[in-house]
Amino acid sequence: MKFNDFQPIYIQIMDYIKYQIIRGELKIDEKVPSVREIASTLKVNPNTVQRSYSELEREDVIYAKRGLGNFVTSDPDIVNNLKEEKAKEILDNFLNEIRKLGLTKYESIKLIEEGWKDNE
């Protein structure tokens, strides 16, 4: 994971965990890596990771079991909401880039349809 200088690290870690959930790398009710493990892997202060986990818990993305660690939410609606939010973010970025290229809505739709056909 590479950090950027434009966003607080704890938010980037939150996004990293959410992305792992969205992609199914962390599944519902699966234990998430410990604070120390993430801190060691990413070479950040454990307090930064703890802040990320506290925010994720506040958003109900993860939950803590006393003495056992943190786990991915058991609510599939929360996971689906995370997927929709990420898809919207990706779509917004895509549309911004398409507009910069000067393509029309219909030219963009045609490209998307061709892209889907090529990847089926």
Could you characterize what this model shows?
With 120 residues, this protein is mostly helical. It has helices at 9-22, 35-42, 46-58, 76-101, 105-118; strands at residues 62-65, 69-72. It contains five helices and two strands. Helix 1 packs across helix 3 (46-58) and helix 1 (9-22) packs across helix 4 (76-101). It is elongated, with a radius of gyration of 18 Å. This is GntR family transcriptional regulator.
Computed CA radius of gyration, to the nearest angstrom: 18 Å
The coarse overall form would be elongated
Tell me the span between the first and last alpha carbons. 30 Å
Number of strands: 2
Q: Give the helices and strands as they follow along the chain.
A: HHHEEHH
**Beta-strand percentage range:** 5-15%
The proportion of residues forming helix, as a percent range, comes to 55-70%
Strand order of the largest sheet: 1-2
Mean pLDDT equals: 95
**Count of alpha and pi helical runs:** 5
Chain-wise SSE layout:
Blueprint (H helix, E strand, L loop, with lengths): L8 H14 L12 H8 L3 H13 L3 E4 L3 E4 L3 H26 L3 H14 L2
Antiparallel strand pairs: 1-2
Helix pairs in contact: 1-3, 1-4, 2-3
What's the gist of this structure?
The chain is mostly helical. It has five helices and two strands. The protein is elongated, with a radius of gyration of 18 Å.
Structure keywords:
mainly alpha, 2 strands, 5 helices, 120 residues
